[in-house]
Structure prediction request, 503 residues.
Amino acid sequence: MAQQIPVITELNLYVDDAALELIPRREAMRLQVLPIQLVGNRLMVAMVQPEDLLKLDELRRITGRDIQAARADLRVIDRGISRFYGEKDELETAQALVEPGLVVQADVRGGAALGLGGEDAPAVALVNELIEAAILARASDIHLEPGVNRLQVRLRVDGVLYDHQGYPLDLHQAVVSRIKIMGGLDISERRMPQDGRFDARLRGRVFDIRVSAVPAITGETLVLRLLPKTATGLKLIELGFGPDHLVQMEELVKRPHGMIFATGPTGSGKTTTLYAILSRLDRVGRNVITIEDPVEYQLTRATQIQVHERIGLDFAAGLRSILRQDPDVIMVGEIRDLESLRMAIQSALTGHLVLTTVHCNDAASGASRLVDMGAEPFLVASAASVFLSQRLVRKICDQCRAEYQPKQEELDQLEIDGGPFYRGRGCDHCRGTGYYGRTSCFEIMVVNDAVSAAITRKETASELRHLSHSLGMRSLKDDAVDKARQGETTLEEVVRAVWVAED
Prediction:
């Protein structure tokens, strides 16, 4: 009879020091395991999947011991690593985490590389480790939050925050100072918010890292946003467009002039979609110029301008300069004021292709938003080619996807028929979440003659929405549910990211 696998929970979690010494913290974090107990030559190790033979072989190689696998939830393992490795070796751990594979550069005062040195070496090493861990985990943001007793670090992966690790509070000020130096901030200013940036290079990839420091009652809270500095590989077909939407977009990007509006809340992927459109365009025979705040990707054969409002270079001033540069295609990172909107519309009406974003809930609301800002309805109707709305949803992990039948109340809530549908069971590949990566859900309101006439009549967003649906536009919810039926995402993600937005 097969040996029963032990189950480790918060209630029966106990770790001895002899077991901890066999697996360094770094390896425990990388493999997502927790050494529990050493008895003779046998080491008990908690894992999410005790049946993973490759991981068991690697543990035997690392420890030189026989491995007895126990089953544990990933949250139990993460908390155990934070709790039992403890404060006693965290400074040594931080020093050991320095690797030549990661080069962190401050892009201020000449961009010289900042190396290890003196008493700050543990903080330098810890910052390098955090950036490396975030990049390898595909995180978009690093949150450093000082508490009463610990410095808590969280990573945002696929749009959701997860606890990464806790550190001694004594490290907080040194870590903050290190990041401030890298980002070009004033290390003596702790009462006012500050913003900065620096570059990080890991395994041939370069990231632009934006730093935000905000004073809180327990100390300064820092958020680092990681932006890859290349648009290579951004393709429309990879963003989540369905076959019908892809055909529409391919036709739209062939137009020599007009305006393409990407709409949606902050963090919904609007800028990435615009870059995918720019990547699709001929940038050899056309002059492509962008003005953004910030420049999120570096695009070859394009002139990219960074907004600097402190010196007077805002979107309006930038647009005025761009129009003297003989552009064919203009991308404006965001329409924020009436002056910028009017210049963008005029550019589209005089033969330029203009791409930009507007913050609103759906495609139909985009046209109403422009009119509310003060633009003449007939100019909006004449200049706009399409209003595209999108949301990001997490993708089901390919390694643990399984079919299931949702409860009837879930189907009733979404007003859809039965499945089958899919969800992830949770595995090492997805860190037990059931999700890996994200995709977009879209709705595309093409400004044809009927929609143009409705905009000119100043019809409401609701009326524009009903008209577009009658002409065949699929809603965000319809596109999201289709992706759930195809096994790309879950109904829970549809409710979280799309359904609530439509209500």
Q: What stands out?
A: The chain has 18 helices and 20 strands. The first strand starts at residue 7 and ends at 8.
